[in-house]
Amino acid sequence: MAAVLRRGAKFISFGSSQLLPGGCKHGRTSTLSFFSSSNRNSSSSSKIKVDLDGSTGIAVVKFQSPPVNSMSLDFLTELSISLEKLELDKSCRGVILTSGQPKIFSAGLDILDMYGKNPEHYAEFWKSVQDIWLKLYSYSKITIAGINGSCPAGGCLMAMTCDYRIMADDPRYRIGLNETQLGIVAPFWFMDTIVNTVGHRTAELSLQFGLMYSPSDALKIGLVDQVVPEEKVLSTATETMTQFMAIPDHAREISKSMLRKPTVDRLLAFRDADTKNFVSFISKDSIQKSLGMYLTMLKQRKV
Ligand SMILES: CC/C=C\C/C=C\CCCC/C=C/C(=O)SCCNC(=O)CCNC(=O)[C@H](O)C(C)(C)COP(=O)(O)OP(=O)(O)OC[C@H]1O[C@@H](n2cnc3c(N)ncnc32)[C@H](O)[C@@H]1OP(=O)(O)O
């Protein structure tokens, strides 16, 4: 624990907030590529690229929203549509979520969607966050996160919805639910998800301190399942997918659903109340002030 906190102390501090170790800067343009082979089915919206290999049944869903794949309303909407199409596509049996941006899996929820907007926008944004979680946590197909970069807060939540997590072995990368570091509180279903992933005691420490883990520490607590060299993330995800695919789909699917249904049902039962809570919490002057300071710090932090 002390070791984890010491590592955490390397984060840049600003008031009560801390940042992930930086150093990487990103271009804001991206190049889209298309496959022509008849066995491959590629589609690309502006933020999500889908490459479905019909011969294996594996779809790679790549986030390509520079600079940091933050989960904006547009990002979430495009991802939701892509996942829905793949779920309906009988030729797809499994989905690998990964990033096309260097050093970042996803920077989590887009803070700009939670700052300086009106309550209607906050409600629409929050419903889209709930929607992507509900979709992924109850996704019938196999999901594997190929975590090829840092993965704070909402990024970590998205990775935790997957059936298996493989993280790149780069000590600069971090993963975790760091909400308390921003002065905000992870909602109950974020908490349920981490409890289901690492167990109650580890989740308590993790959530209260807003801990961000290196790949090796994340492996120790079971937040990720495997750590491999970065260049092997995708091939390892494909190999792992093949192992999942060896299990009869219906048996695997029903097992997943039985294990996750109580958690999914809890959000479904309180979805409207959760949206109201979010809107009222995020609209508070004190929270807006914290987020504003955090954004300023993010923008000023040039190394
Ligand atoms: C009782 C409770 C009831 C209800 C609940 C209520 C509310 C709370 C729930 C909210 C749950 C929140 C979940 C979240 O996901 S919040 C987001 C958390 N994310 C972070 O803290 C990550 C912040 N970012 C970083 O640490 C670094 O950017 C990162 C990812 C390590 C990358 O570092 P680096 O490569 O050096 O890149 P920069 O820092 O220079 O960033 C480039 C550029 O991107 C902007 N940016 C970064 N992250 C975000 C973000 N999450 N949203 C929006 N914009 C982001 C950054 O400002 C830079 O912008 P610039 O214009 O300067 O280029």
Automatic annotation (TrEMBL):
Pathway assigned to this chain's UniProt record: Lipid metabolism; fatty acid beta-oxidation
GO function terms (MF aspect): delta(3)-delta(2)-enoyl-CoA isomerase activity
Catalyzed reactions: (3Z)-hexenoyl-CoA = (2E)-hexenoyl-CoA; (3Z)-dodecenoyl-CoA = (2E)-dodecenoyl-CoA; (3Z)-decenoyl-CoA = (2E)-decenoyl-CoA; a (3E)-enoyl-CoA = a 4-saturated (2E)-enoyl-CoA
GO cellular component, one term: mitochondrial matrix
Protein location: Mitochondrion matrix
Xref: Pfam families: ECH_1
CDD domains reported in the protein's UniProt record: crotonase-like
GO terms classed as biological process: fatty acid beta-oxidation
E.C. number(s) listed in UniProt: 5.3.3.8
SUPFAM superfamilies: ClpP/crotonase
Keyword annotations from UniProtKB, A to Z: Acetylation, Fatty acid metabolism, Isomerase, Lipid metabolism, Mitochondrion, Transit peptide
Keyword Iron in annotation: no
Tree of life domain: Eukaryota
Family per similarity comment: Belongs to the enoyl-CoA hydratase/isomerase family.
Function in brief: Key enzyme of fatty acid beta-oxidation. Able to isomerize both 3-cis (3Z) and 3-trans (3E) double bonds into the 2-trans (2E) form in a range of enoyl-CoA species, with a preference for (3Z)-enoyl-CoAs over (3E)-enoyl-CoAs. The catalytic efficiency of this enzyme is not affected by the fatty acyl chain length.
Complex formation: Homotrimer.
The protein's name in its UniProt record: Enoyl-CoA delta isomerase 1, mitochondrial
Species whose genome carries this gene: Hemibagrus wyckioides
